[in-house]
């Protein structure tokens, strides 16, 4: 087992550090910015179904559902196709409306999640075309779908999903850009810009991983907190949800992720001088709005920890702790901004003496409903 962990103390940490490579593997042979080309072999036969889709329904659970939320923003922005992201467990039991022209995308690391599989079978029985985004080759979900793209992240052992999540984001971004290119909803120039940007992601993730020691220090200061709030907007909203999920999964600290502006409709009541509030506040189109949300938290004496874009001056001046990640296009930021949150939850859990690779009550793949 020590050998399998490759010198890391836990599988989770190893998998967090594998991300530059797993993201690169996921793009290998599929993306070529110099040619403006995206080749997703497993989709080719069915890609026109996605191009002509009137609506995309994404079904998933857990972390995969968060990847689906990022994809919603991505598909709507670049493909102009309406997207709905569904918890598979809800979708399967509520007699959902599935029309001709709807296309379903199922996301699953294991490819074995019972609720996601049942949601696929239901959608199929209503005539929908189903695409799969799975990590495990030959898994039940991969076999149940009409077409799909594997994430090629390699085996993920830690129960809390890390490298599978970023690989899902990578695949979904490639699918969306490929659809946008065919649909003509993106200019060649914008497409080129994004493809070039995608190729830089492994190096930027590498850079974000250099935050490890800094995050360890912050973790030591917050390890005894009883609650955490994670806030983000736009593409960073699902990242806030994912950060909170990671923390509660492995450290057993109660954590809530919220869209930053929605905070005033509830969570703001929880804020006092003991509440850590993690802002995913990178420089994007909602930056100014997030600045005012930070002010709202500070006014109530919350302890602000911010993830910002390198070189930002304003938010660091307002925060108690700051970690800087490299600049990336808004739509690809989740690939980088999630890294410090994975590390934060990891270190806090280790410091609390928790079993990070096999947290209590959780399973790597949930094959029962
Ligand atoms: C379990 C795992 C999570 C995972 C979720 C969905 O709860 O502990 O890490 O996100 O299932 O799993 P899937 O394999 O379908 O992505």
UniProtKB/TrEMBL annotation:
Molecular function, one GO term: carbohydrate derivative binding
E.C. code: 2.6.1.16
Subcellular locations according to the entry: Cytoplasm
Keyword Repeat found: yes
Keyword Cytoplasm among record annotations: yes
Catalytic activity annotation: D-fructose 6-phosphate + L-glutamine = D-glucosamine 6-phosphate + L-glutamate
Ranges where the SIS domain occurs: 46-185, 218-359
Keywords from the UniProt entry: Aminotransferase, Cytoplasm, Glutamine amidotransferase, Repeat, Transferase
GO terms for biological process, alphabetical: amino sugar biosynthetic process; carbohydrate metabolic process; fructose 6-phosphate metabolic process; protein N-linked glycosylation; UDP-N-acetylglucosamine metabolic process
Catalytic machinery residues: 364 (for fru-6p isomerization activity)
A single Gene Ontology CC term: cytosol
Primary localisation category: cytoplasm
Assembly: Homodimer.
Function statement: Catalyzes the first step in hexosamine metabolism, converting fructose-6P into glucosamine-6P using glutamine as a nitrogen source.
Name of the protein in its database record: Glutamine--fructose-6-phosphate aminotransferase [isomerizing]
Organism, scientific name: Chryseolinea serpens
Full-sequence portion shown in this chain: 243 to 611 of 611
């Amino acid at each position: 087992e020590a050998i399998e962990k490759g010198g890391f103390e836990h599988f989770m940490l190893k998998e967090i550090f594998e991300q530059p490579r797993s993201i690169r593997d996921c793009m290998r042979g599929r993306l070529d910015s110099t040619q403006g080309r995206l080749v997703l072999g497993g989709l080719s036969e069915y890609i026109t179904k996605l191009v002509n889709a009137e609506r995309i329904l994404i079904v998933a659970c857990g972390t995969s559902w968060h990847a689906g939320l990022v994809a919603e923003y991505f598909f709507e922005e670049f493909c102009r196709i309406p997207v709905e992201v569904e918890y598979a467990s809800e979708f399967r039991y509520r007699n959902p409306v599935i029309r001709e022209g709807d296309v379903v995308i199922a996301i699953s690391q294991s490819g074995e999640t019972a609720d996601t599989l049942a949601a696929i079978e239901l959608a199929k029985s209503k005539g929908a075309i189903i695409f799969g985004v799975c990590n495990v080759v030959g898994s039940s979900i991969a076999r149940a779908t009409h077409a799909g793209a594997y994430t090629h992240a390699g085996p993920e052992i830690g129960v809390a999903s890390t490298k599978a999540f970023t690989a899902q984001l990578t695949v979904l971004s490639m699918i969306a850009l490929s659809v946008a290119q065919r649909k003509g909803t993106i200019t060649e120039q914008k497409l080129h810009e994004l493809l070039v940007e995608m190729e830089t992601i492994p190096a930027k993730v590498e850079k974000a991983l250099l935050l490890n020691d800094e995050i360890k220090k912050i973790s030591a200061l917050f390890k005894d907190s009883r609650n955490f709030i994670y806030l983000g907007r736009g593409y960073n909203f699902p990242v806030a949800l994912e950060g909170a999920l990671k923390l509660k999964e492995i450290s057993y600290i109660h954590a809530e992720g919220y869209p930053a502006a929605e905070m005033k409709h509830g969570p703001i009541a929880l804020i006092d001088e003991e509440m850590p509030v993690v802002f995913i506040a990178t420089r994007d189109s909602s930056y100014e709005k997030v600045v005012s949300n930070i002010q709202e938290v500070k006014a109530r004496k919350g302890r602000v920890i911010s993830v910002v874009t390198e070189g930002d001056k304003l938010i660091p001046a307002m925060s108690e702790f700051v970690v800087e990640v490299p600049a990336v296009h808004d739509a690809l930021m989740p690939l980088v901004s999630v890294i410090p949150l994975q590390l934060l939850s990891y270190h806090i859990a280790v410091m609390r003496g928790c079993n990070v690779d096999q947290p209590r009550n959780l399973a790597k793949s949930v094959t029962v409903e």
